[in-house]
Design goal:
two-stranded antiparallel ribbon, ABC transporter involved in vitamin B12 uptake, BtuC, single chain, 72% helix, 366 residues, mainly alpha
Length: 366
């Protein structure tokens, strides 16, 4: 007996959807995505509370956490809760949401489940910028103070955006075709990875160790200085991405159909790619590269919602929940030794990437 691989649901005609209108904007909605989003919010809330209860050796029960939250805890409990655990959990939530949303946008505009910041070279581009700051800063003295707090995130931001521009420019041939964009992205990713390793070979062992720690993607050093910029960035980028949901849906129907619906295909694809790159750069600047969250979250959300393309809000919620849960696994798997969350997501994501490649190959043969 042979079995055929599962296929995504056919694109909805929109005739069975209800519309939500706010001023000049309108969105369609269905009960199942709302139910999935509500369930993910419950999972996210549970993971966030679990993160507040335990991340280190300092014991805190539910009553202590609740008492500290309302101002009745001692100074030790307040420090652990407000300066260590809460910024770490909040940073993980925001970074995961940004990566999930960025992956949904990229897979939506390329119509390819393999498209993500990791495969398009943006993550490694951000790594090149951050490692360059660490190496050059280390050559000039010490990587600390202003260089560490501002220079590394700024380098990641510039490197990621530069990689996005290079990938889009090299893939442009009277337009951008998704397969060519993905191939150029993979080549750029490999080139940037080798630049990173070359930069590590030029510096001393201390700076190389700092750079390697950053490259693993970790929430260990998360604080309010990293959580607040990520939150402010999401406040701007999340509504902007939601406004473009109709354009992403049109691009998912094919370039010709999108043009027929009045969408400027190449301009829209460039703007959406830049929005996605900004989301990735903000996330990478906060924690270092946490791989595979942007790749897996949109596909998980797509299957949960049974939609024709990755839903933006559900992908963001999935990415946030996935990152928070992975960080708690990383913290508790070999306790008291805590692994970087990027190690756990890489271990889980690599088999998933292989599954997507095999599934894509089987679909191409049918």
């Amino acid at each position: 007996m042979t079995t055929s691989p599962p296929r995504p649901s056919p694109p909805s005609t929109g005739l069975n959807r209800r519309a939500l209108r706010i001023g000049p904007f309108s969105w369609t909605w269905q009960p199942r995505p709302l139910l999935v989003a509500a369930t993910l919010l419950v999972v996210l809330a549970a993971a966030f509370v679990r993160a507040l209860l335990a991340f280190d050796d300092y014991p805190m029960g539910v009553d202590t956490v609740l008492r500290t939250l309302v101002g009745g805890g001692d100074s030790g409990s307040e420090f652990v809760l407000f300066e260590l655990r809460m910024p770490r959990a909040l940073t993980g939530l925001l970074v995961g949401a940004a990566l999930g949303l960025a992956g949904a946008i990229m897979q939506g505009i390329t119509r390819n489940p393999l498209a993500s910041p990791d495969t398009l070279g943006i993550t490694w581009g951000a790594a090149v910028g951050a490692v360059a700051v660490i190496v050059l800063g280390g050559s000039a003295g010490q990587v600390g103070g202003l260089v560490s707090e501002v220079g590394v995130p700024a380098g990641a931001l510039v490197g990621g955006l530069g990689a996005a521009v290079v990938v889009f420019g090299l893939a442009w041939q009277s337009g951008v075709e998704s397969t060519r964009l993905l191939l150029v992205g993979i080549a750029t990713s490999l080139f940037c990875a080798n630049l990173v390793y070359w930069g590590l070979s030029l510096t001393n062992i201390q700076d190389a160790a700092r750079a390697q720690t950053w490259l693993t993607g970790s929430l260990h050093a998360a604080d309010w200085d990293r959580a607040v910029p990520a939150a402010l960035s999401l406040l701007v980028l999340l509504p902007t991405a939601l406004i473009t949901a109709r354009v992403i849906g049109a691009l998912g129907l094919g370039d010709d159909t999108a043009r027929g619906l009045g969408v400027r295909v190449n301009t829209s694809r460039l703007v959406l790619l830049l929005i996605s790159a900004l989301l990735v750069c903000v996330a990478t600047a906060a924690t270092g590269p946490i791989t595979f969250v942007a790749l897996a979250s949109p596909q998980m959300a797509l299957r949960l919602c049974r939609s024709s393309h990755p839903p933006l809000v559900t992908s963001a919620l999935t990415g946030a929940a996935l990152t928070l849960v992975a960080d708690q696994v990383a913290a508790g798997l070999f306790a008291p030794t805590q692994l970087p969350v990027g190690v756990v997501t890489s271990v889980l994501g690599a088999p998933y990437l292989m599954y997507l490649i095999i599934r894509r190959h089987r679909e191409a043969r049918l």
